[in-house]
From TrEMBL:
GO terms for molecular function: 2-C-methyl-D-erythritol 4-phosphate cytidylyltransferase activity. It comes from Chromobacterium paludis. The record marks R154, K208 as: Positions MEP for the nucleophilic attack. InterPro entries: IspD, IspD/TarI, IspD/TarI_cytidylyltransf_bact, ISPD_synthase_CS, Nucleotide-diphossugar_trans. It catalyses: 2-C-methyl-D-erythritol 4-phosphate + CTP + H(+) = 4-CDP-2-C-methyl-D-erythritol + diphosphate. It holds the Pfam family IspD. It comes from the Bacteria. Signal peptide: none annotated. Keywords: Isoprene biosynthesis, Nucleotidyltransferase, Transferase. Belongs to the IspD/TarI cytidylyltransferase family. IspD subfamily. Its EC number is 2.7.7.60. This is 2-C-methyl-D-erythritol 4-phosphate cytidylyltransferase. PROSITE patterns: ISPD (PS01295).
């Protein structure tokens, strides 16, 4: 029986958000922001472990009462997201064919239903895949002065989200092939091996809190759910 493990990189500094502490620790509806992320992953019955990767220099994690089932912390975060994920994978102590669902700590409005859709779609898949959203708007390419240079057909374009779900052994190999700083998501590392991850439709609520203006929307979504 293979395990299904959620791996949550949370070693970023939140430079675009610009708060005194990293955005994953900001208070949101009575909990640190990433508590909501971890609680959703822990609430998925098929997931047996929820492993959060923080920086070795993290000063905040221990200040909070997380009080969540399945939770483990690894203090092995790296200089970029891909390095944090690769270090976490190396420290995980899991089997090569275990499934790993990598999910951004800052995507705190993830729903259990979306995770279960991803897991169901990939049950018999040889490679793995990711939640993603078909681009809903008309897409423009800008020139150097900020004018429209072209309208790009949106047909076939998707916005990558997380979780991104791959076998632990394959993902570790993908992330250590090539420079970590050039890897913006797990799927792109898998693609570089010549493999084709499956796109599974996510939802717009699963956005990444990046700027201060994003917090009001996250608050409203979580409050409307009422569960946490
Ligand atoms: N992350 C990480 N290790 C890093 C950088 C990022 O684990 N060295 C994590 C972040 O904590 C976050 C996720 O990767 O949960 C997505 O990254 P992003 O939203 O870019 O967060 P930050 O890098 O913290 O933000 P910024 O880019 O604005 O500095
Ligand atoms: Mg970043």
């Amino acid at each position: 029986m293979t395990d299904m493990i959620a791996l949550v990189p949370a070693a970023g500094s939140g430079s675009r958000f610009g708060a005194p502490s990293p955005k994953q620790y900001l208070q949101l509806n009575g909990h640190p922001l990433m508590w909501h992320t971890l609680a959703t992953l822990a609430a998925v019955p098929a997931i047996s472990r929820v492993v959060v990767v923080v920086s070795p220099h993290d000063e905040w994690f221990d200040d909070f009462e997380w009080d969540l089932p399945k939770l483990e912390v690894l203090r092995v975060g790296g200089a970029c997201r891909a390095e944090s994920v690769a270090n976490g994978l190396a420290a995980l102590d899991c089997a090569a064919d275990d499934w790993v669902l990598v999910h951004d700590a800052a995507r705190c409005c993830l729903s259990v239903a979306a995770v279960e859709r991803l897991i169901a779609a990939l049950a018999d898949h040889p490679v793995g895949g990711l939640l993603a959203l078909p681009v809903p708007d008309t897409v423009k390419r800008a020139d150097a002065e900020g004018h429209v240079a072209a309208t790009v057909p949106r047909n076939g374009l998707w916005l990558a989200q997380t979780p991104q779900m791959f076998r632990a052994g394959l993902l570790a190999r993908a992330l250590t092939t090539g420079a970590a700083a050039d890897i913006t998501d797990e799927a792109s590392a898998i693609e570089k091996l010549g493999l084709r991850p499956l796109l599974v439709e996510g939802d717009a609520q699963n956005f990444k809190v990046t700027y201060p203006r994003d917090l009001a929307l996250a608050k409203a979504i979580l409050a409307a759910r009422g569960a946490f």
